[in-house]
Amino acid sequence: MRWKRKIHHGGPSKQQQVSPLADEVCAIDKEVSHLCRIKSEPSQRTRASIYAGQKRPVSTFKLLSGRESNCSGMGRFSSADCSYALRKHLPVKGPWCVDDMDSEAYISQFSADGSLLIGGFRGSHIRVYNSEKNWKVHKDITCKRLRWTISDIALSPDQQFLAYSSLSPTVHIVNVQNAVRESHANITEIHEGLEFSDDDDEFSFGIFSVKFSKDGRELVVGNNNESICIYDLGANKVTERINAHVADVNVVTFADETNDILYSGSDDSLCKVWDRRCHKKQKPVGVLTGHLDGITFIDSRGDGHYFISNCKDQTIKLWDLRKMSSTTKERTMLHCIVRRIKTVLQHACPMGKGNIFRLTSNAYKSCTPKAYEWDYRWMTYPSEARYLKHPYDQSLATFRGHSVLRTLIRCYFSPMHSTGQRYIYTGSSDQCVYIYDVATGKVVEKLRWHGSIIRDCSWHPYLPTLVSSSWDGYLVRWEATEDDRDPSMLRTGKQRMHPEGYTMSFVL
Fold first, then answer.
1. Where are the WD repeats (predicted)?
2. Partner of 98 for a Cys bridge, out of 83, 108, 448, 475, CB 3.0 to 4.6 A?
3. pLDDT in tens, 391-424
């Protein structure tokens, strides 16, 4: 907490205590609020035609009647008008059951056109559902040679092939559009294996993240060998291997349609930006600091400028590439960071009084103020650390409220078509889906029903439908409208902590 002097006209000044989050909310307003409003509020032309330039809320009825009478002169809604009308109808009703499995649901992802939904479950099960045919199973895939679980799934841009990874150096490819509905690996159908290991690798690593390039010609993976690997599907080999971080690379993704820029996030708490056109491909073109713990996921806004990251420090951060620093500048800040963090911790919780805070050796390796030791897989987040802030935080905004424990929980921008990317949504270990308003930083909705951790969720690219996947074994959907007559609607009291037939085991 800090103190700020507030002046009252006609009287003496007095002190007012300011929340440590106040500056973060202001940062959202200054940096991205205007961009969000342009994409998700009625266009100037529409507003002027309805209210003659007055700044008043525009009802859906006014929008529709204005379109019918062609007040704007366009004869149709603009994309911003569509987003404004649809974002009033968030998918918060329900949920309804899509599937109920006997193992934890790890992944739920819509295809680019929303026609398919992919669900991945611990062990060896993947199901592809047809969202246009009442969520009927389009393909039932049984995987082989997995270690522990399916760690990630990616669908090719043409929706022909599905790639899946686990905690091994092999990614498997399966055709999801052929006539084989029951796909048992190497029994009813060949699941081609792509080998990412190298002769120089000292141990067999696991893959945490896999993505297709936008043209479908390459696969990029992040792994616990601290590297990023790019596989050329035409040449059938790994063509690039980048020693990216000093800890596990939990996520890697393409920035936009060009395939030239990559974002990566690691347990060293850094977000790094890679330009494949540069000659020095082993060096990032920029580093973004601000998180205080391992990064679990990154989602790009798709415009080549903004992306968000989820982190074990219990925050989501919004970033702008134009604010990134060089690695050289970052290293020169290291000693200043360490000194400042030490000072903060000595005041907050002095050493020698049973607290768990200390500066680890990783802080010096990764140039990051790793100020405390804890294990997110089985410990709760230290309350003393909840509002610690990186002294050189380069993010535009920080979103707090959800919980990131026990697994690599994911976060995303809401769809452009239906919301103008006005929102950020995320799973959470407190069994809820959180929806944040990017323009204000506030939690606008919390979807509660699941009985266990929600690791992943996916918003339909065009319809007001959101699917969440939980460790309770359920894949469920949330809608903007309610239908009590639908027998698949799940009622309160039907929740459970574990899937049916669950056997206790250590969970990563």
1. 242-275, 288-329
2. 475
3. 889 999 999 999 999 999 999 999 998 888 999 9
Cross-strand bridge partners of residue 310: 297, 316
| Exposure on the CB side of residue 14, measured as CA atoms within 13 A | 7
CB 477 within 8 A of CB 465: yes
Predicted confidence at residue 501, as pLDDT, reads 53
Q: What distances in angstroms separate CA 431 from CA 400, 427, 449, 463, 467, one per listed residue?
A: 15, 8, 7, 24, 14
The encoded tokens of residue 209 equal 């993240």
Which two three-digit tokens encode residue 479?
């809608």
pLDDT in tens, 297-333: 999 999 889 999 999 999 999 999 988 887 644 444 4
Question: What are the structural domains of the chain?
Answer: 2-85 (no CATH), 90-102+409-501 (2.130.10.10)
Query: For residue 222, is pLDDT > 90?
Result: yes
Is residue 185 within 8 Å of 191, Cβ to Cβ?
A: yes
What tokens were used for 448?
């509660």
**What is the amino acid identity at position 478?**
W
- Name the residue with tokens 């294996």: 193
More confident residue, 248 or 327: 248
User: Long-range CB contacts (< 8 A, 24+ apart) of 55-59?
Assistant: 58/84
CB-CB contact of 151 with 208 (8 Å): yes
> Tokens standing for 248?
């596990």
Question: Rounded to an integer, what distance in angstroms lies between the CA atom of residue 476 and that of residue 98?
Answer: 5
Q: What token pair was written down for 44?
A: 């100037």
pTM: 0.82
Nearest-angstrom CA–CA distance, 219 and 315 = 28
Token output for 398:
């920080």
Q: Is 100 helix (H, G, I), strand (E, B) or coil?
A: strand
What's the number of CA atoms in the CB half-sphere (13 Å) around residue 339? Answer: 5
Enclosing H/E stretch for 207: strand 207-212
Rg (CA), the chain: 24
